[in-house]
Amino acid sequence: MQSIRIRVAGILVQDGKILLVRHEKNDKSYWLIPGGGVDFGESAEAALIREFQEEVGLPIQVGPLVLVHDSIPPNRHRQVLNLYFTVTAAHTNIHVTPDAVLRDAAFYDLAEFGNMPVNPDVKKEILEGIAHQWVQGCRYLGNRWHD
Questions:
Q1: How many helices (H) and strands (E) in the chain?
Q2: Counting beta carbons within 10 angstroms of the beta carbon of residue 20, is it exposed (0 to 12), middle (13 to 18) or buried (19 or more)?
Q3: Which residue of 21, 30, 98, 135 is most buried, as measured by CB atoms within 10 A?
Q4: Non-local CB neighbours of 101 within 8 Å, separated by 6+ positions
């Protein structure tokens, strides 16, 4: 039976810098907004709090849902629904916990962020949202599959 994976991600910006995590998978290295899969019976908020704790050891407060998009490859071998929330943290002392794909985490200047290999590529929408303080509310971006 096929199922849809739900992935939550937290956009954490402090002092003009955004937190990103680096994954290595299938001989590719790319950056993502921190987060991960929602477990059955777990709320999106609880999953995001858990994922931040697991990946970077950072307690967060979850803010509004700001972006939603699908990730469906042409061969339809999987489907992911991505939910992006703004998050805040009392501090930025991160401690990376490497796993099967997670390799690094760091804060990057927003100007640098626009030129980084981020997967899925939602940099433009994130930068617009940050610049306008997310006044447009939650946006659905459609299918953002990218090899």
A1: 3, 8
A2: buried
A3: 21
A4: 23, 24, 25
Provide the pairing of β-strand 5-14 with 17-25.
antiparallel
30: three-class secondary structure by DSSP? strand
Task: Give residue-wise pLDDT tens across range 79-124.
Answer: 999 999 999 999 999 999 878 788 999 999 999 999 998 988 899 9
For 136, which DSSP code?
A: T
What confidence tens digit (pLDDT) does each residue in 120-141 have? 889 999 999 999 999 988 999 9
What's the rounded Cα separation, in Å, for the pair 140 and 19?
Answer: 22
Q: Average pLDDT of the chain? A: 92
> Domain with 99 in it: what CATH number?
3.90.79.10
Q: What pLDDT does residue 119 have?
A: 87
Integer angstrom CA distances of residue 50 from 36, 56, 58, 127: 9, 10, 9, 25
Q: Which domain holds residue 30?
A: 5-143
Task: Provide the token pair at 47.
Answer: 């999953």
